[in-house]
Amino acid sequence: MAEVTPLIRDELLPPRGPGRRHLISIRDLTKEDVERLLALARTFSASLDREVKKLPALKGRTVVNMFFESSTRTSSSFELAAKRLSADVMSIKASGSAVDKGESLRDTALTIGAYDPDVIVLRHPHIGAPQVIADATTAHVVNAGDGTHQHPTQALLDLYTIDEELGGIAGLHVAIVGDVLHSRVARSDIQALVLMGARVTVVGPPPLIPRGIEAMGCEVSHDIETIRDADVVYVLRMQKERMLEGANYVPSLREYTARWGVTPERLRPGQKVMHPGPMNRGVEIDPVVADAADALIERQVRSGLVVRMAVLYDLLTHGPVEVKVAEIEEVA
Amino acid sequence: MGEILFGGNGRKDDLSYEGVRVVDPTEGIDETLNLTVEAGVITKIEPGTGGDGRIVAPAFVDPHVHLRTPGREDEEDIATGTKAAAAGGYCAILAMPNTEPAVDSAAVLGALVERAKDEAEIPVGFLAAISKGQEGAELTEMVELAERGAAGFTDDGRPVASPGLLRRALQYHSVTGRRIAVHCEEATLSRGGHIHEGLVSAELGFGGYPSVAESVMVGRDLMLAAYENQPIHVLHLSARESVDELRSARSAGVQASGEVTPHHLCLTDEAVRTLDPNVKMNPPLRAEEDRQALLEALKDGTIEAIATDHAPHARHEKDVPFEEAPFGVTGLETAFSVLHTRLVEPGVLSLAALIDRLAAGPARIYGLERPRIAVGAPANLVVLDLERTWRVEESGFRSRSPNSWLIGQTLKGKVVETVANGKLAYSA
After folding, report:
1. Would you state the CATH architecture of domain B59-370?
2. Nearest-by-Cβ selection for B347 from A2, A9, A187
3. I want to staple A155 with a disulfide (CB 3.0 to 4.6 A). Which of A17, A192, B200, B258 is the partner?
4. Which positions ≥6 away from B300 have C-beta within 8 Å?
């Protein structure tokens, strides 16, 4: 019998304009892309210590933040990142906009697209929303979280944080603990960490670990004791809405915390602890752990700013580009 | 109990085909012949010579079409749906009852039948609901519905959740002589699912719709049919385990039949990586091993019919993020061409088998007159040009909705003429 090849993604992909780049998934990036972005973020980090923190790099460019889901850290981080690079920034939220009046995402995108923005940063509750924006506008699209799919800039800032704190990523063991099933952060982080050569173990109750996740290159454990082996323990937010009566992912938050909560007793000294926020103290993470010296949680927020500056700069300067510190200092 | 196909009547054409390759696998014909049709009936079949590359075969029967009428005529109506079917080589189609309102009473069915007589380009039949409002609680008046022309019974679009109700339906419907068809989905397992549960859903973060949500229901329904010793038809099979259930039930003597769609034969869940809402359907695209099992079952006859599950959706309803998009894709106008391109050309499926599963198979399941090439038979013919390549264009559909997964693709093999019940219904 002759082999027949099923249709795969390339044949179905909509035609794209040449050279227009998006950051929708960590899958869009190569290892070289990530290394370039981290180096660029380090460069921008130096600028944060100066008295005048603004760089003229994206002067005259327009960045539109479209946030259709509540967000504090991601939206403020993108907004500040764009402003620090001197871009014109416009922010649109679902509430109080035409979305409230039932406008479709595509129509909103066409409206915003009429202003020819250079970048659209999108946060949306549904998988596939960034593709709608990419198809309807000519902007570069940055996915700031689409449903349970991806949150690539979170993964990049996590890599940056780990790299800064531990001096490298390859060879480290990272345990990701909690509700992996519903976590876009977990998916982006697994892909990013595996891409950079880390060993990743996901830990949690079986109903919250997606079937087949091993294919992404990680290991799976249902035993919280596994986290003791890790260099970094990455705690996921336990989303209370997943714990509604009848959902039955776990019998109760109480039982979840008793079995899978990250407590001081379950860690060994020197292990770094991360969390994408917002935290449910006393649920997935013990307050003592969250406030300990080994917690990198605030550090993650600060990394977010420079990493998002790097992403915006890189997309708009049509990287890969060689990053020269001196050059940026000069324009500053 | 009388007629079950309506409309598409009127003209009875005189036609002749000189020196064409005639392929009718069920009649055992594959040779160059001259065919004559007079007043809509095949009157002469004589040896011919030459041949211009065209093939004449029995026209197709689609046992699973959503005509969206009544209620969503903005997506499809009887005229546009049957014109699309004619362009796809079909001489008859069966429409599903999950409309607004559902086809669950003789009044709704009667109105449809009258509209079909006026509007249908080719003959069309209507399945009626198993339960009132397709709500799974009370049986419809099946005898009256059958007398009014129901071609069969189904709650397609949703499962019959209660085994008790399905059992009563299997018992009661037997007096009508019409077939019960089941959409197999255990809702507590598929809830929240957008795509097949597997490696792709794990990576993309979609709620999974596991194979077992289908197969557990296929198993249950086949057991009920076996227990009641009644025939049953399983709609749109997608999973390897479901195929296994069907095969073992058939070998145990259950009068069970199954159908499969072109998209489940050609695509896997890998296609979902595009996040194109036109690859979102229920049941979802599954893994390669499932696709291979469906192909194997189609070849060995376990699955007798190819059904498009043509499910038109308004453009604005599909022009949304994948996760928000409704399930369903169109298929009437591309089924033969894509299956020829993807399965016959590479040698996976013979042309004869494809024609049989598109024509005789579906007709047999629902007890329709089999389209055939024989003297004295009504002319239900399709003319195929296997060498012709064409590009699927969004603007080229006769269907009112453009939600095809094949837009922009080039296919090899095309329906160039369709004769339905003696009338030349389509000519490219």
Report:
1. Alpha-Beta Barrel (3.20)
2. A2
3. A192
4. none
